[in-house]
Design goal:
By secondary structure, the protein is α/β, with parallel strands linked by helices. It contains 12 helices and 8 strands. Bound molecules: 1,4-dihydronicotinamide adenine dinucleotide (NAI) and (2S)-3,4-dihydro-2H-pyrrole-2-carboxylic acid (A1CAB). The site of 1,4-dihydronicotinamide adenine dinucleotide (NAI) has 27 residues, from helix 1 and helix 4. Pfam families: F420_oxidored, P5CR_dimer.
Length: 270
């Protein structure tokens, strides 16, 4: 799948694990994946669970890998590269999943000739249902973009946008799973409040979100059209929708995406 290339991860946290699990499920060999991770318990977990080579030495992974996924928090990125020495990254394709770090930031820190692909994935990659959006830095080639897209295609859907849209992408799909979990938790709680057993309420909440998402994607209809098909005149759905509108549900979602988009832009600042 990686065609003999070794993919190294710098940072073995939640998002790295989601991508790794997806890659292995998608047919990538464990021997083609390496991780550098400073936390011993995390190293043991990743090695024990996935059978991949995990070590504490960023330099060793950088030296062995053909392409590196930068999967540390944006706040630790500059210190991490300074400790490694930018020369350790020479010639490697650098794939950054860090929110807010631009390709220009990457080139400034890792070297002006660095080949950089910036990606905003999301955690449903863990179950091969990720949404990943890519853009490329000025030195990255068509082949680099093709290679990186191939990785993220294995863990869900991909699209390519202009870099100026990446913070908005972060606010929508990077952070989006958390909003949806909050919504499903509320839906489940509301079911319990109205007498449903917890397991039934949670299963109904999750399947409702999954089913509605598939209906939207498979019909290609506007969400408003699909909403109308649920909503009988004088029925129960319109009573629920009127309540959500009174509480400015859609305005609250838009404000959340605005806040996350603005925070993504801030995260890249030194
Ligand atoms: N969690 C998510 O849903 C998403 C996260 N991202 C981005 O992915 C990146 C990682 O996020 P998470 O996985 O959520 O964070 P995390 O905190 O779970 O993972 C970061 C990992 O980096 C390790 N680390 C810390 N310092 C290091 C160093 N100097 N060298 C190597 N590893 C080091 C930590 O021990 C930790 O395991 C962030 O930049 C975030 O913006 C992007 C899309 C979605
Ligand atoms: O919360 C964050 O900053 C990261 C980026 C997108 C999702 N998680």
């Amino acid at each position: 799948m990686l065609k003999g290339s070794t993919l190294g991860f710098i940072g073995g946290g939640n998002m790295a694990e989601a991508i790794i699990k997806g890659l292995l499920a998608g047919g990538v060999a464990a021997a083609d994946v390496m991780v550098a991770e400073p936390v011993a318990a995390r190293r043991e977990y990743l090695h024990g669970t996935y059978g991949i080579d995990v070590c504490a030495d960023n330099g060793r992974v950088a030296a062995a890998a053909d392409a590196l996924v930068m999967a540390v928090k944006p706040q630790v990125f500059r210190g991490m590269v300074a400790a490694l020495g930018p020369a350790g990254l020479d010639g490697k394709l650098l794939i950054s999943i860090m929110a807010g770090i631009t390709t220009a930031d990457m080139e400034e820190v890792c070297g002006s000739a660095a080949r950089v692909i910036r990606v905003m994935p999301n955690t449903p990659a863990l179950v091969l249902e990720g949404a990943s959006t890519l853009c490329r830095g000025r030195n990255a080639t068509d082949d680099d973009l093709f290679f990186a897209t191939g990785i993220f295609d294995l863990v869900g859907t991909t699209c390519v946008v202009e870099e100026k849209l990446m913070d908005a992408v972060t606010g929508v799909s990077g952070c989006g799973p958390a909003y949806v979990f909050l919504f499903m938790e509320a839906l489940s709680d509301a079911g319990v409040k109205n007498g449903l057993p917890r397991d039934v309420a949670t299963r109904l909440a999750a399947q409702t979100v999954l089913g509605a998402a598939r209906l939207l994607l498979e019909t290609g209809d506007h969400p408003g059209v699909l909403k109308e098909k649920v909503t009988s005149p004088g029925g129960s759905t319109i009573a629920g929708i009127a309540s959500l509108e009174r509480d400015a549900f859609r305005g609250a979602v838009m404000a959340a995406v605005d806040a996350a988009t603005a925070r993504s832009a801030e995260l890249g600042k030194k």
